[in-house]
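User: Structure please.
Assistant: Input sequence and predicted structure:
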Amino acid sequence: MTINKRLRLDVPEAFGRLHVLPLLLQFTEQHPHLLPHVSFTDRFVDLQDEGIDVAVRIGGAEYWPASLGHSYLGCERMIFCASPDYLAKRGVPTSINELVSHDSVLYGKADGSTTPWLILNNTGLVERKTMEGRIIVGSGEAKVSAVKAGYGIAQLATWLVRDDIKRGDLVMILPELITDGLPLHLMWPIGRQLLPKVSGILAFLRKELRIN
């Protein structure tokens, strides 16, 4: 099947750069007549109004509009991490009570609110714990930078910190507290999936793209 013409895609900023773009480049190499136009944004995008063929989104709607097709690809895995230097100074927490007494690096929203920690309790239920925050930033990659700089412990997605942990730049804490985070979805305007360029990239990403 020959796939050609312009293909508009919108992907999350950090996840898109780290995990989606390498796959898109691979797909484009297989289909040299394809002309991808890739935008990177974490904001809500109206796919119809902005002419987007396919979007990759972390998170999902409570109710999907009839005008959008969507595919679920899995959930984030959330872990607690800190830098080796921070843990050398403050000690490694060995319980939830010790964990929540440490400095924390939090994700902050534009409205001034922060994302709570998701903590798996001893009954198997996930509790939402609001933390004070030694530093609050509005970017996942900025959270990683602050944690590496020794500002405290953060709850981070494995897709964002896997390489840092392998290199020893970050240390995973209390692995028994791993929880599911947000879901990963492909989205497209209904009807676009009939175009070869759209059906092709959807099939490729369903097979290759993972978040956990």
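Residues 118 and 128 are 5 Å apart (CA to CA).
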